[in-house]
Amino acid sequence: MSTAGFPADRLRPGPPRRSRVAPAWAWVSLLAAGLIAAPLASVLVTAATPAGLGSGGTEWAYILRTLLPELLVNSLLLAVLVGVLAATMGAITAWLVASCAFRGRWLLEVALLLPMAMPAYVCGYTYVWLLDVAGPVQTLLRDATGLRWGDYWFPEIRSLPGAALMLAAVLYPYVYLLCRSAFLQQSVCLLEASRTLGHGLPRTFLHVALPMARPALAGGVALVLMETLADFGTVQHFAVRTFTTGIYDAWFGLADRTAAAQLATALMGLVATLLLLERMSRGGRRYHPTTTRNPPLRPVVLRGWKEAAAILVCSLPVLLGFVIPAGALLMLMLEAGDPLDPRRTVPYALNSVTLAGLTAALAVLLAALLAWAQRLHPSRVRASANRVAALGYALPGSVIAVGALVPFALFDNTLDAWMRARFGISTGLLLSGSIAALVFAYLVRFLGVALSAVESGLARIRPSLFGAARVLGRTPGQAVRSVELPLARGALLTAGVLVFVDTMKELPATLIVRPFDFDTLAVRVHNLASDERLAEASTAALLIVLVGLLPVAALVRGMRR
C-alpha cells in the first residue's frame, strides 16, 4: 500500500493511549481509601456536632479563648524546629555516605538507621533522667566542681527546644532513608558536570544533588512533620502544650469528645495545609533522570580533616538518637530491670512482632494499590482520596482508635440486634476490641507512611519505561510487574520497614483497642514508666529497640543487594 502523502512520524508506532475507563482494581483503590478514611469521617462528624449539646459548649469556649493560641504557636514552632533539624541531619548524612569514601563509612551507613528503633518517648524519658537536676550528669558536675544547684547554669531539658531535639534525633532516619536512595539513583553526568565546572562537594550538594532529591526530601520531612504533630508522650513529658496534649485534655480531662474532635479536625487541617503548600511550590516540575546513561556513583575519597569532619557529622546523630539512650537503658536494666521472669516477657514481644508484621504487609499492599491506581489512571478523585487516607498519620493514636471503634461498634450492634430479633441469640462484640480492630486502627494511623514512601519511589521512575513496555506488547499489568515493580522494590521495602517500626512503638491506639489481657511491649513500658519506674521499664524498652533492629538489618541487606 502506498505511503505517499503521510508523514513518516505517523507511521512509527507510538505508546498506546491510556484507557479512559479505569479498570475495576483502580476503583477498588477508592473503596480502600474510603474504608481507611472512615475513622477520620467519624471524627469530623463528631466535631460537627453542635457544641451546645451535652457539656461541649462551655469547655470548647474555654479552650478556644484561652488554650488554642498557645496550642497553635507551640505546635508550629515544634514542627518547624523538628523539620529543620531532621532535614539537616538526614540529608547531609545521606549525601556523605552516598557520595564520599572515608574510614568507617560502611558502619555509619548502617548505624544511621539505628534511631528508627528508638521510640521518641523512651528517648525523652532517658534524657530527662540523665540531664535532670537529680540525674547523673548534674550530680557528677556538682561533685566535680563543689557547686550547689542554682550556682551554675544548665540547659533546661524539659522545654520546647529540648522536645524538638529529642524528636529530631529519632525521626531523621525518615529523611536519611529516602534521600540516600535518591542520591544513589541520580544521574552521575550531572554530578560530574558540576565538579568539572569547579564546584566542590558542598556546592554540588546544595545546587545539584539536593534539588534533584526534592521529592525524597519532601516526603521524608512530611513524615517527620506528621509524626511530630501527632506525638503525645514526648511533649507531655517535656511539659510542652501542643494540639495533641489539648486533645487529650479535652477528651479525658474535660470528658468532652466534641471539643477533642474539633481540635483534631484543626490538626488535620494544619497538616493538609502544609502538604498542599509543598505540592504547590513543586508545581509541574519533574525530578527523574532524562537519560539512560547512569553509571554507578563513584564516591570521592576524603582525607585529613575532611575525613574527620565527615566521621564526626555522621556519628553525632547516631550517638544522640541511639547510643546514649540505649546505653542509659542498658545501665538501668543491669541495675534493676523488669522484675518479671524473662519467659513472661516473651509473649509481649511476640504480640508486638505479630501485629507489626501483619500491619506492615497490609499497609504496603494498600499503599501500592493506591499509588499505582493514581499513576496509571490519574484523576482528581483518586488524588484527593489518597491524601485523605494519608491524613491519619497526623492524628494522635487515641483519636484514631476511638474513631476506628465507631464503625466496628455499629456493625456489632446492628448484627446483635438482628440476631436477637430473628433467632433470640446475642452475638455480643465480634469485632470491637479484637485483633482485627487493632490492626485496622494501625492501618489508619500508618498508611500515610507507606504511601509517602511508595509515591516517592514511583516519582523517580521515568514514565517512558512504562510506555516502552506497552509498545513492546505488554499489558498494563505486565508492564507494572516486569518494569516498574522491580524498580520500586526498594521503596516498597522501605515502606514496610517504616510501618513495622512505627507499629512496634505505637502506644495510645494499643491501649484503647487491644483485646482484654493482650499486652505489647509498648504497653508494658507505659505501665511501668507511668509509675516512675523507668529502671524496671528499661527491659521492655530495650526489647522494643532490639526487635526494631531486625527489620532495619533486613533493610540494609536489601539496599546493599
Describe the secondary-structure layout:
Blueprint: H1 8-11, H2 24-47, H3 56-99, E1 100-101, H4 105-111, H5 120-131, H6 136-145, H7 160-184, H8 188-196, H9 201-212, H10 214-230, H11 233-237, H12 243-253, H13 257-282, E2 300-301, H14 304-335, H15 342-376, H16 380-390, H17 397-423, H18 435-459, H19 463-471, H20 476-487, H21 489-505, H22 508-513, H23 521-529, H24 534-560
Parallel strand pairs: 1-2
Helix pairs in contact: 2-13, 2-15, 2-16, 2-17, 3-7, 3-10, 3-12, 3-14, 4-14, 5-7, 5-14, 7-10, 7-14, 7-21, 8-9, 10-13, 10-18, 12-13, 14-24, 15-18, 15-21, 16-18, 17-18, 18-21, 19-20, 21-24, 23-24
Please explain how this structure is put together.
The protein is mostly helical and 561 residues long. Helix 3 (56-99) crosses helix 7, helix 5 (120-131) crosses helix 14 and helix 14 (304-335) packs across helix 24. A two-stranded parallel sheet has the order 1-2. The chain has helices at residues 8-11, 24-47, 56-99, 105-111, 120-131, 136-145, 160-184, 188-196, 201-212, 214-230, 233-237, 243-253, 257-282, 304-335, 342-376, 380-390, 397-423, 435-459, 463-471, 476-487, 489-505, 508-513, 521-529, 534-560, and strands at 100-101, 300-301.
Keywords:
561 residues, mainly alpha, two-stranded parallel sheet, 74% helix, disordered N terminus
Question: What is this entry, summarized?
Answer:
This protein has helices spanning 8-11, 24-47, 56-99, 105-111, 120-131, 136-145, 160-184, 188-196, 201-212, 214-230, 233-237, 243-253, 257-282, 304-335, 342-376, 380-390, 397-423, 435-459, 463-471, 476-487, 489-505, 508-513, 521-529, 534-560, and strands spanning 100-101, 300-301. It is mostly helical and 561 residues long.
